[in-house]
Amino acid sequence: MADAALRLKSLVEQMLGAPLPVRVRAWDGSEAGPPGAPTLVVRNRRALRRLLFKPGELGLARAWVAGDLDVDGDLYAALDLLAELIWERGEDARTLGQALRDPEVRAAVRGLVKLAGPPLPPAPPAEEIRRRRGHLHTRRTDKRAISHHYDVGNDFYELVLGPSMVYSCAYWPAPESEGGTLETAQRDKLELVCRKLDLKPGMRLLDVGCGWGSMAIHAAREHGVTVVGVTLSQEQAAYARKRIAEEGLTDRIEIRVQDYRDVQDGPYDAISSIGMAEHVGAEKYLEYAGDLYALLKPGGRLLNHQIARRPQRDESAYSVDEFIDSYVFPDGELAPVGTTVTQLERAGFEVRDVEAIREHYAHTLRRWVANLEAGWERAVRLVSPGRARVWRLYMAASALSFEHNRIGVNQVLAVKTPESGASGLPLRARTWN
User: pTM for this one?
Assistant: First the structure.
C-alpha cells in the first residue's frame, strides 16, 4: 500500500508541532494534505536523508538544488505557507537541541530515520561552494566569492536580467507598476542615481562594483561624465568593455578588475555603489566607508544602494542565511539601515537622504523569476539544472521577503561636506506626491 506521503506528513507535523500547510506527494505516488494547496514533491528517500543529516535550511536547500524536492503549483504560495513554519519562526524559536528534549520530537525523528532508509549522508550538490578556513573579506576570499556568484556565464545573466543587464532593484512607477517594462524601470533607476549625484559634464565618477557596465554607460552617455568602474569579476569586466566599445565610449569609461580597496587615483566628484556593499562584511564596513570618503573631493557625493535586514534584539546572534551563503552570495552580510548610516557618519560623511524602495525590489525579482521560467530549458543548458534551481528559489524567496518587510533596500545619499558646511544640496532635495 502506497502511504509514504501520509506517514511523512504525520511525522513532520509531530516534529514541528504544527499542521503542514502544503500537500505532500511522495516517491511512491501517494499524496496527503490540504486539497488544492501547493504540493511539496518528495521525489525520493534521499531528500529525507539530506534533512536528517543537515536539519534546517541547508538540508532543505541541498534537497531542492539536487532535485530531490520540488513544488507542484504556485512556488510563491508554497514558500509563503512554509516560511513562517520553517524559516521565519523568530528569535524565540527553539533550537534543534531544545526541540530534541521533547519525547514526541525524538519519536518523530526516529520515524523519519526509518522512513528515509539506509543512513548514508548524500554528497552536497556540486553547486554548493566548498569552504576553506581563514579570515573573511580578504582580497583573495572576496574575489573568490564574487567569482562564484558572477562568473557563471554572461548569457545566463542576459536571460534573467534582460537587455538592461542591471542586477539591482529597478525603480517602478507607482502604483501601477505592472504596465512598465523591466528595461524602462532599470533605466529610471540609473537616472535616479545620476540625479541624486547631480552629475554634470566633465565630472569624474567612480562606480564601485560596476557589474556589466550599465551605470557607467548611462552616466557617460546621458550626463557627460568620465567613469572608472571596478569589479572583481573577469566575466563582468569583459562584457562591460565590449558594450562600452559598441557605444563608442571607450574614451570616457575605464573598466578595471580591481578591489575597491586598491583604487588610488582619487579624488572623484561622485561615487556610486549599487548593490555592492552587501559583499563588504560588518568587520570591514567602516574601512569601506572610509576608503570611499577618502576618494571623494570635498563636496563630493556618495550614493550607496544596499539591501538591509531588520534589526535583532541581540545583534550578536545574527547569522548569515545558510542557503544564500552556501549557494548564492558566499560571505555576504546584511545590516540594518541604521547601522549603515552610522558607519557612513563615523567615516566622516554627512547623510542627507535615505530612500526606502523595498517594494520596488519585490517587483523586480518577480520579473527576473518570470524571465528565468520562460527560458528554463535554455537556462539549464547554460549553467546546470542545480544552478538554475538555486536561482529560481533564491529570487522567489527574496521577492517574498521584500514584500513581507523581512528585508528592505535603501538608497543612502551622503556628502563629504567641507569645513564651510556647504553641502551643495538644495533646501528641498525631494518632493512628495
Answer: 0.91
